[in-house]
Amino acid sequence: MGSPCSVLTRAASESEAQTLVDALAAEAWRVEDKFSRYLPGNIVDRINCGAVGPVAVDEETANLLDFAASLHAMSDGLFDITSGLLRKAWTFDGGDRVPAKKQIASLLARIGWRRVSWERPTVTLEAGMEIDFGGVGKEYAVDRAAGIAAEISDRASLLNFGGDIFAVRTPGDTKTWQVGIEALEGAGQKAERVIRLGQGALATSGDARRFVLHEGIRYGHILDPTTGWPVRDAPRSITVAADTCTQAGMLATLAILSGANAERFLEAQGVKFWCQR
Questions:
Q1: Rounded CA separation 147/182 (Å)
Q2: In principle, which of 87, 96, 133, 256 could form an S-S bond with 137, CB 3.0–4.6 Å?
Q3: Cα–Cα distance between 172 and 68 in angstroms, integer?
C-alpha cells in the first residue's frame, strides 16, 4: 500500500485478533501484488508491457478499468489512470525541484485515457503509455478487507490503510469510533478535528506529506493530466465520509481535481466532508 496499515478490533483473545489481522493482511497483499505498478509480471505490468497489442484481463481488473473510465467521464478527463507517467517528472518529497516544461510536454504526449482501447475483456495501449491504479487501489483494498472482516468475524473493527478508514460495526459501549483528521501544521502530531464514525468509510486527500515547495509556492501531489502540473487553488486537505472507502476516496480526489470549486462539487454530491485550506 506504500503506507502504514493497521487494524483496531475488539476481540475476545489475542489469537482471535491475530486470525482476523492475518486474513485482512493477506487480502491487502493480494490486491497490492496484483495491481501495483512496481511489480513485474502482474496484470498491470502485462498491460503496460503489452502496449500496441491487446491484453485480455480478468473480471476484477475489468471492473477497475470500468470504474476508472467512469471517473474519467465524471471529471471531464481530469481523473486519468494513464497520467502516472508524470511521476517521472515530479518527486513530491517536500523538496524544491520542479520539472522542466520540456520534460512535462514529452510525457503529456503519452497520456490520455481517450487513446486507450478498452472493450471487455481486452485493453490496448499505444506505444509508451502506461496505466496506474494508484488513484483507486488503496481504497479498493480497504473495501475488500472490510468485506472479509464482516464475513469472518462478528467483532467491531476499524481498518486504517494509510489514512483511508473503514469502520466495520460499532464498538459497542461507545457506539462510535473516534477518528482524528490531521491538522495541516504538525502533520501526525495533532488533530484538526475528531470525527465520530459509527459504520462506513472516511478517505482523505491532500498535500500534508507529499508536496514540493518552490519559490514560496506549495505544489500538491495531485496532478492535472491535461497540463502535467499540480491542480491549482485546491484545498490543502479534504476528508469525505461515504458508505465505502472507494466512494469516499473517489469523491475526495475529484474534489481536489476541481480546484477552487472543491467545496461546491462536494456539496452537490450531498455527502459529509471536511476541508482545510
A1: 26
A2: 133
A3: 37
Say if residue 186's pLDDT is above 70.
Answer: no
For position 192, what pLDDT does the model report?
84
Contact 48, 57 (CB under 8 A): no
- How far is 253 from 198, CA to CA, in rounded Å? 23
C-alpha cell at 84: 502516472
pLDDT tens digits along 215-247: 999 999 999 999 999 999 999 999 999 999 999
H or E element, residue 256 = helix 245-257
Name the β-bridge partners of 212: 219
Over 80: is that where the pLDDT of 23 sits? yes
The grid coordinates of residue 236 equal 490543502
Separation between Cα atoms, residue 33 and residue 30, nearest integer Å:
5
Q: Which residues pair with 204 in a beta bridge?
A: 239
Rounded to whole angstroms, the Cα distance separating 260 from 264 reads 9
Sequence-distant (6+) residues with CB within 8 A of 261 are none
For cell 464498538, what's the residue?
171
C-beta of residue 241 within 8 angstroms of C-beta of residue 249: no
